[in-house]
Amino acid sequence: MDERWGRLLLSELLYELRKVADTPPVDDLQEYDGNKPAFLKAQKKRKSTGKIHLTTKSAAGGFIKGGAKWIGDLIGGMTLIGAEGRAVASADARQFLETSVRVEQTLLKNEKHLELLLPDPASSDDRRWPGPITYRSALNHFVAICIRVHSIAPEVRFEDVISNVAKRVLIPGLAHNMKFFARENPHVYRLFVHNDKICYRLGLKWVGSEEQIKTVPISERHVFRKWVRLFNVMVDAATFISPEQRGEMFGSFQNLLKDHEAEPRTSQLWKELSILASGDMAVDEILVSCVLGDVGVDAKDLTSSPLVNCARARFGLLRYAYGMQREMEEFRERFSYGQTEVEGILRRISKTHSGNQLDSDLSNQAFGWAYIFSRYLLLGRKKKDNDSDSLANHSLASSLLCGLLEALVGRKAVGDAEERMLALRYLLGYLTNPRFIKSPEYLRKNKGDLKYNSGRIEAFIKIAE
After folding, report:
1. Range(s) of the domain holding residue 163
2. Do 157 and 112 fall into the same domain?
3. Considering only CA atoms, which of 306, 302, 301, 309 is closest in space to residue 461?
4. What phi and psi, each to the nearest 5 degrees, are found at residue 87?
C-alpha cells in the first residue's frame, strides 16, 4: 500500500501547510510595509495565538487507539463507579481526554497561525452568507473524501484521488473565499481572477512577485503577498501532477469566479458549493460518487438520488433567491403579496404541459419563492411588529410552498431533471425537518384527523426511491 495514505491526517496537513507557508519565516515589518493598522492588528493577533505543539503521525495514531480503547471500556461497563455514584475515569481515560485537549489546541493554533500567513477572508468586512470556508474545514473535508474514495477503490493511484478531490473540494473553496476580497481589495482580485497570463495558468510558481507588487496599492499589498504565498505552496504540493494539470486547476478557479460574476444564481460555483455545504463538512456521498466517476470507477450515480438533507437543499435554493431582495422586503410587509405571486406561478406551471421543459425564469421564480416561504416558516425566526397575522398565515404558506415544489416534482421533461431532483430533495427535507412549521394537510391522512400520519411523506419517499 502507498505509505502516503498513512500520512493523510488533518493534523499533519495543517501543520505541514503552516510550516511550508512560514518558510522562510514571514517578517511582519516587510509583510505590512506601509500599512500600520494592518501591522498592529497582525502583531496583536500573533501575541494572542501562542506556541504550537507538534502533533505527529505517531501521536495522532496513539490518540485514535487510546480513544478506541476508552470508548470500548465505557461500552463494556468497565468505567468504575466511585463514592456517591460518581463516575471515576481510569488513568487511560484521563490520558485520552488530556490528549484530545492537546490535539484540539494544536489544530486551533495551527489555524490561527495560518490566518497570519495566508489569506484570511474572515477578517473581511463582507458579512455575506454563506461565510468563508476555513482552512481546517476545507482540509478536513478533503481528507474525509480522499479516504472514503480510497476505501471504495483502493486500486486507484494516490495521485489521481488527491488531484480529483482537490478539484471538487479545494478549488471551489478557494474561489468562494476569493469573493470576500473583491470589494476591499479589487486590484488583487482582478490580478488573480482576470489575468490570463499569470504564471499559475502555466502551473508555475510566482517568482519575483515583489516586482509586481509595486503596481498594487499599499493597502492591498499584504493581501497580495498572502495569496501569492498560498498559490506557491499549492504548486509545490502538487508536483506529482504535470504543470499543464496544475494550470488547468488554476484556470478552473478563475472560470468559477468569472462565471459567478456573470450570473450568481445559476453559476457553476453555486452548484459546487451546494454540494459542499453539507452542514458539518462530513463525508458527502454525492461528492464521493462524483470523484469516483472522475477517476473512472463505476459506481451508483448518487447525484440522482434525492438525499433527505434540508441543509444542502436550502443552500441549493438560496442561489435562486439571490436576486429577489425586493420581493423579500415586500413579502415581509404584506403576506398577500407573496400569496398572489406564488398562486400566479402555480397557474403558469399548470398551463405548461408536463412533457415540455419549463421556462428557466419560471423555475427560477418558483425556487426563489420556495426559499422565501421556507424562511418564513422556520421556527424561531423573529417576526416584524406589524406581522400580527403571521400565525394565521403559516398553514397557507406551508401549502403554497409544498404546492410549488410538488408542481416541479411532477414535471416529466428531460430538461427539467435537475430542477425536479432539487425540488424533491427540498420537499423531503422540509417535511421531515422539525424546525419548520407545516400545514396539517401534509401531516394527516385525511382532513380533520387529529393523529399524525406519515402517508403523504412516504409517498414522496417512494418517488425518490
Report:
1. 123-305
2. no
3. 306
4. -75, 140
Is residue 180 classed as helix, strand or coil in its secondary structure? helix
List, for residues 86-116, the tens digit of each pLDDT value.
445 556 666 656 666 666 777 777 888 888 8
Name the β-bridge partners of 88. 80
Q: Are 342 and 373 in contact (CB under 8 A)?
A: yes
Burial of residue 139 (CB within 10 Å: 0-12, 13-18, 19+) is: buried
Closest CA to 116 of 202, 200, 195, 25: 25
Using CA atoms, how far apart are residues 373 and 94, in angstroms rounded to an integer? 49
Domain co-membership, 131 together with 193? yes
Q: Are residues 135 and 237 in the same domain?
A: yes
Nearest to 181, CA basis, from 196, 171, 193: 193
Closest CA to 423 of 395, 402, 398, 454: 402
DSSP, res 305:
S
Residue 296, Cβ neighbours under 10 Å: how many?
Answer: 10
Do both 324 and 295 map to the same domain?
Answer: no
Q: Which three cell numbers stand for residue 212?
A: 509586481
Q: Which of 305, 330, 359 is the last residue of a domain?
A: 305
Residues 288 and 374 in one domain: no
Rounded Cα gap, residues 359 and 373, in angstroms:
21
Verify that 295 and 147 share a domain, yes or no.
yes
pLDDT in tens, 220-265: 999 999 999 999 999 998 888 899 999 999 999 999 999 999 888 7
Q: Are both 183 and 270 inside the same structural domain?
A: yes
